Structure formats: structure tokens, C-alpha cells
Amino acid sequence: SWCSQGTGSGIGAWDDTYSFSPMLSKIVGKHNLKFGGEFRLLRNNYYESNDPAGFFHFNANMTGANPQNGGPGRTPGADAAAGGNGFASFLLGYGAGGDSVTEPARTADQIKYLALYAGDTFQVTKKFTVNLGVRVDLQGDWTERFDRILVFNPNETSPIGTQAGMPDVKGAFDLVHSSQHHSRSAYDPWNDVSPRIGVSYQFARNTVIRAGYGIFYVSPDIRWDDAPHNLFINSFNTTWLTAQADGVTPKNTLFNPFPTGITPPFGRDQALINVQGNGVSAPLVGEKAPYSQQWNLNIQHQLAGNLLLDVAYAGSKGTHLPMHTQDLNQLQPQFLPTGAADPIANPAAYAQIAFLTAQVANPFAGNCAPPAVCTGPVQSGGVGTNPTVKRAQLLLPYPQYDDVAVTEPDNRDSSYHSLQEKVQKRFSAGANILAAYTVSKLIDNTNSEINWLEAASPGWGDGNAYDLRHERSLDGFDVPQRLVLGSVLDLPFGRGKKFANNWSGVANKLVSGWGVDTIITFQKGFPIIIGGCPGPLSNSGIPNVGCARAARAGVSHLTSGSLQDRLTRWFDTSVFAPSQIFGVTDRKTLTLPFLRIPSLVRRTVLVSSSGPSSSTASTIRNLVRPIPAVVAAATLAG
User: Labelling 381: which of 468, 514, 527, 601 has CA 20 to 30 A away?
Assistant: First the structure.
């Protein structure tokens, strides 16, 4: 088999950021008043294609003696590739099929942000200070210069359903700045009010107590999958048709794979958008702004000998947090088989599977809106082309789509709690040592916005999109314990120091102002992701079911021995097995507090000079004990 990977990914990005931040401060008696605003304009001109030159595969089938396995006039069961050669197929230009080239749009994305704020630091007494503040965020969402943005309206009558004589079918994609969606962005600007309050009280001569609370809204640009260049209307795959309908006779060879040209993205073509039935996703109308509530309580006490003790509790709660994508077309749990995956002990479950997977007439086959578009480049999916579908397809929330997802849904949340302790000692000779220890826990039902790039972030979907409460688990980046030891030492050389204090001129400049800073970090490892979706439900043939988590029988512990000896068996996997029951399960086995990747030890030494040669006299050594990628994410073999 031969494959040309083209020229690799092609990305072009031209970013501009403009900002204006005026501020006015005025002291009136015991009040220190501040007023201000902030304006930001973010422009992102973007282009990305993972196959700008296309993918072209070749195998032995097209040059084999029996290129079609079975069929009229051919021997059933014969090896389709017998006698063939993949390189010979390449020389003849006969492709294996299924390849394409992607043509993305060059989008001109933009976000406008405006905020106004006011604050008052009020010194009530010499020992008691109150900080009051409020911030109003007028956050705009992504817009695009040519309005190439769309949204999904789950309550709108489906044009495909109407064409099929099913007016009760809901769900449609609408272009922005249109009669269906008047705004130029997926969401109207959010008017978010963020109060903040802080207090400080000197409880005793050497003791200060501080507390604070605030609400902080998340910038829209973190919702990366909502950006216009990621929407399906701004990218199109032109398929390489390598064979005639019989699957044997060559059609378009490598010498001219796309005789009618490469189809550009259809952009603002509502008629084409209406008939897309596969691989479609968009922002959902009416989403809410994500925000976090943060609070803390801190006690500082100064002991004799310049020794400072600091103990704090800090927490936060995230609300309406985004998730990369979420399946909107998952089959409702009430239709799913339940109980043990045993055809003898549980015949009712297998009868339900047979009922859901039985082929029935497809009311959406051949429907287009309008019909004239059917001759164009339509990616309508199996629902739009197959005369029959599985019965479960017609029970989906949006049966007119093979699959449909919402990008960056606002239905996720998080909670974080931590105890932070710090001890700091200052010495008169210019030395400073610090020890900081944090115990924390982070729980959520979302994770990373770039989960396909991070081993500690699961890349699969929800077990049950209708019960996100049971999707909560330890975050993939939870760090339960972290200890940081630091020291700052001014070397005793040069004028006014213990050594070389009588030197002058160039000699004094060379030896003065040197210091050594050291930081050592000890950190518990991230949770291991117990992954995959094995189980009888996902293997049943029922479309659009949830992701069954692994079943756990007992407690799994980390194995013992050296790190190198444990790479292939970092923990006891025998207690995990594919689920043997139907139905979806929660994320309680996705991350476990006692199964983690190796702890991290980082040592940083900085040698620096504050003298005139400091620009060339600094060196940093960062000694990191690496985290083995092989154990960074564990996948349960099914």
C-alpha cells in the first residue's frame, strides 16, 4: 500500500490586536477611587488545511487479477489484491479510493471587547481596609468580514423534514445576518456585571487577615471551536473518484484526479447548508457567557527573625464553561437495552437491539431543499442517500442528520479547592528562602480546548449527554500536592560586601551584583486516563449511543520497581475490563485519585548579575525529570 502525505499541514495566520485602556484615579479622604475602561479589537485572518496537496492512497487491488472481491462474474471470497502490486497501481495512477483534498476558506475573524470598571479602596480605620469594585464586560462574539458564520437552532422547523412531509422534525442551521438569525455573530453581546470585594484586617501587631470574592468572565476567544474558520461551511472536501460504479473500472487517475476542479467551500449558501446531513456542527443559539467565582481567606503572621507564615484557603467554581464539542444527536437512554450482555439471561435486551437495528424505509432519502441543489456538491450523508436506515436513526433527536454536534456548549462546570501554606525567611545578608506547599482538588465535566494534543485530556465523548452531572470526575490536570522550595542568595563579592569590598573600577563591576536563585518543585503526577469506549452497547450496531466507561472490580494500585521496568505495566490493569452491561456509565472510572503518572521534580538554577554585564552573564539550567509519554495516558484494551 502506498500513500502520499502531500506537503503536510498548511497554516497561515495574520493576527492584529488593538487596545486602549484609559484610567482615572482620585483620592478623596479615606477613599482611593479608580475609574477606567478597556477596549480591545482582536483580528484573526486564518487559513488551515491538514491536506493542502491532498491524500492519495494506492494498493494492489486495482492491479490485481480479481480486483473486486466477489460479485457478478467473480469468485466469492477471492483475495481482491491477488497478483496486484501497490506500486504498479501508483505508476498507472489507479487510486484505492476514499481520498480527498480539502479546500478551506481564508476567513477574516474578529472579536470586539469593551469593559468599564470602577473601584474604591476605603481605609475605614488604620487596621481595617475594604476594597469594592465592579466591572461591566460588554463582550462581543466572533464575527467574520463576509458573515461566513452559522448557528444551530434546535427548535426551528427542519427544511429537510418539511420536504419529507415531516413538519414536526426540528433542527436547522442558519446563517448569521439573515432573516433566520439577525445578529452578525452566533451570540448577541454579553452584558456581564462582575462584582469584586476584598477586606483586610490587622488582627494583631504581627497578624493580618485578608479575604476576597469576585466574579470573572471568560473571554470569548477561548471558545476556539466557535471561530469562523472551524465551521464546516468554510471548508470542503473534494473526493477523488477513482473507480466507476462497478468499483473496478478506473475513473479519474492520479494524472488528473479532479477533472471538474476542486470545489470551494460553499460559505453563505443557505440552500446547500440545508441539505448537509453528516459531520455538521455549529454554535447553539442562546448560549450563556462562561464565568468563574473565586474566593480566598488568608492569614499572615510575622514571627521574630524575619520569619513570615502564610496560610490561605482558595477556591473557585466555574459555571457555563465550554466543552470542545458535544453530541446533540445521542439516542435517548429510554430507548437503550439494559441489563447484562448475555443473550440467554437477558433475551429482552437483544430483542431491543434487533428492534433498533432493523432496517426501515428512510423518509429522508433523496430529499433536498430545494431539489435543484441535488445536482451540486452535496455532502448529505447516509440519511440523505440510503433508501433504508436503522430504526434507531428515526428515534434520534434530529433524525435528518447522521450526526450533529454543538461546538463549545455552555453546560459544563468545575470546582476547585486548595489549602496553600507558605513559610518565608529573610536574612540580613541578602538571602531569602521560601517553602510553599499546596494541597488541592479540581473536579469538572469538561477539560481542555485542545484535547487532541494533550495526553492528560480525554478525547472521547460523554457517556450520557442527558445527564452531565455523572460526567464529573477529577480533571485530567488535577495536581493534589505541590511543594516549591526556593532561595535567593546575593553573593558576598564587591564593594560593601564581605569579600573584595575594597575593589574599585572595572574589577569591582565584574564581581559585584551577582546572585544565585534556586527553585526546586515537587509535584504529584496527573491522573491516568482510563479510556476507550469498549462494551456491548458500542458494539451493538445501534447508532449514536454514549461512551461506556470501563468496569472496575476492586482497587487498582501502582506497581513497584524502577520507572523503566514499569513502563509496560505502570498499574494493575487486571481490575479493569470492558463493561459487560448495556447502558451508559458515569465517569467514576475515567480518572482515579490513586492512579497517576510519575511525580514531577524540577530544579531550576539561575545565576544572574545586576551589573552592566547582566545581559550576557545570565544562564539558566532547567533540569526536569521527564514524564514518560507511554504512561501519560492509559487505554484499556477491549
Answer: 468
Tell me what pLDDT residue 13 has: 84
> Considering its fold, how many domains does the chain have in total?
1
Torsion of CA 256, 259, 265, 268, to 10 degrees: 170
As a residue count, the chain comes to 638
CA dihedral 573, 575, 581, 586 (to 10 degrees): -80
Distance separating alpha carbons of residues 397 and 394, to the nearest angstrom? 8
Does 215 map to a domain?
no
Residue 532, all three cell numbers? 476507550
C-beta of residue 356 within 8 angstroms of C-beta of residue 333: no
Please state, in angstroms and rounded to a whole number, the distance separating the CA atoms of residues 475 and 261: 47
- The neighbour count for residue 29, using CB atoms within 10 Å, is 7
Handedness of CA 365, 367, 372, 377 (dihedral sign): negative
Peptide bond between residue 370 and the one before it cis (omega within 30 degrees of 0): yes
Burial class for 24, CB neighbours closer than 10 Å (0-12, 13-18, 19+): exposed
d(CA 248, CA 63): 10
Which of 506-520, 564-578, 609-623 is most confident? Answer: 506-520
Helix (H, G, I), strand (E, B) or coil at 40: strand
Q: What is the pLDDT of residue 589?
A: 62
| Mean pLDDT value of segment 69-88 | 61
Give the burial class of 523: count Cβ atoms within 10 A of its Cβ; 0-12 exposed, 13-18 middle, 19 or more buried: middle
Whether 257 is in a domain gets the answer no
| Poorest-pLDDT segment among 35-39, 368-372, 400-404 | 368-372
Q: Determine which helix (DSSP H) or strand (DSSP E) holds 601, and give its type and residue range.
A: strand 600-609
Q: State phi, psi for 507 to the nearest 5 degrees.
A: -60, -45
CA pseudo-torsion sign 441, 447, 450, 452: positive
Predicted local distance difference test score (pLDDT) of residue 623: 37
Structural domain span for residue 625: 432-441+467-638
Which amino acid is residue 265, in one-letter code? P
Say whether pLDDT at 224 is over 70. Answer: yes
Per-residue model confidence as pLDDT tens digits over 519-551: 999 999 988 877 666 677 777 888 888 777 777
What local confidence, expressed as pLDDT, does residue 6 receive? 47
**Cα distance between residue 444 and residue 472, in whole Å:** 5
Distance CA(569)–CA(548), nearest Å, equals 23
CA 103 to chain centre: 24
In a domain, 42, yes or no: no
When pLDDT is averaged across residues 26-52 and rounded to a whole number, the result is: 91
552 assigned to some structural domain:
yes
